[in-house]
Structures are given as structure tokens and as C-alpha cells.
Amino acid sequence: MFSVEVRDRIMIGHSLPDPFFGPAQHMHGATFVVDVAFFRETLTRQNVVVDIGAALDVLNKTLKPLNYQNLDALPQFKGVLTTTEFLCKHIFDAVAAAARSGALGEDGKGLSKIRVTLHETDLARAAYEGALA
Q1: What is the pLDDT of residue 69?
Q2: Cα 9 to chain center, whole Å?
Q3: Are 115 and 126 spatial neighbours (Cβ–Cβ below 8 Å)?
Q4: 12 sits in which H/E element
Q5: For the chain, which terminal residue's Cβ has fewer other Cβ atoms within 10 angstroms, N or C?
Q6: Banded pLDDT at 109 (limits 50, 70, 90)
Q7: Average of per-residue pLDDT across 16-38
Q8: pLDDT of residue 106
Q9: What sign for the dihedral angle of Cα 9, 104, 86, 35?
Q10: Residue 107: pLDDT above 90?
Q11: Is the pLDDT of residue 15 over 90?
């Protein structure tokens, strides 16, 4: 399986109001490095997985509404624990929808799967990976 991976970053504020999260129950900030990997079984006619420029553009547009935001204040996250794992799936869903809609060009429609990884620090990261059926 072939893959191409692109990277961006976001800075967010949020709280995780559950005793499970200890001090992270309170408002805190996070800077996430976000990697999105695109996979396909065979290369396109141009011998690529997907246009890297289009992939970077889709990732940037996906992250822009989250960047420099207090996630607790965004209506779509009301009452949601916006954990790193949750955000991986949220970003995956948006990137997958963009791929299906043609935002990655025709090549994006032939992708097998996508993996989204959020790096909290150089020591910890979370990911969500799913098929594009």
C-alpha cells in the first residue's frame, strides 16, 4: 500500500470536565501537530497517491475553524469531551468528506484509507484510521 502524509498544526484551548482527566479538567491550551496520511493500493496514472498541494490545502481548510479557538465555546462541541482521540476522528470525518466530494481532485476518490494523527508532544500522540468505502 502506498501513502503520502502531510502536516499542519493548530493551537486550541479547552477543558475536559471529568475527574478522570485530573488537572486537564480545567481550561488549558494545546498545540497539536496534525499529520494526515492518505493510502491507496496502486498509484495513479501520474504515479502519485494524491496531489500533495491539494492534500495540504484540504488539511489547512479543515483545521482553520479550530485554530486559536476555545473548543468549549464552539456549538458543535457543546457537552463533548474534546480529547485528542475525539479530535482525530473529527478531523478524519472532515478530510474524508473532502476526499469523497472531489476536493482532492479525482485522485482523492480512489483512496483506500486515511489516518489522522495528532501529536500532543514529542512523547504522546493519538490517531484515527479508517477506510474510504
Answers
A1: 98
A2: 10
A3: no
A4: strand 2-14
A5: C
A6: confident
A7: 96
A8: 85
A9: negative
A10: no
A11: yes
Contact by Cβ (8 Å): 116, 45? no
* Distance in angstroms (rounded) separating the CA atoms of residues 14 and 67: 12
DSSP 39: E
Confidence of residue 53 (pLDDT cuts 50, 70, 90): very high
Q: For residues 98 and 132, is the Cβ–Cβ distance under 8 A?
A: no
Integer Cα distance of 99 and 73 in angstroms? 28
Query: Using CA atoms in the order 77, 78, 80, 81, what is the torsion angle rounded to 10 degrees?
Result: 90
Query: Left, alpha or beta for 68 (phi > 0: left; psi -120 to 50: alpha)?
Result: left
Phi-psi region of 84 (alpha: psi -120 to 50; beta: other; left: phi over 0): alpha
Q: CA angle, 88 as apex, 60 and 86 as ends, to 5°? A: 130
At 3 the three-state DSSP class reads strand
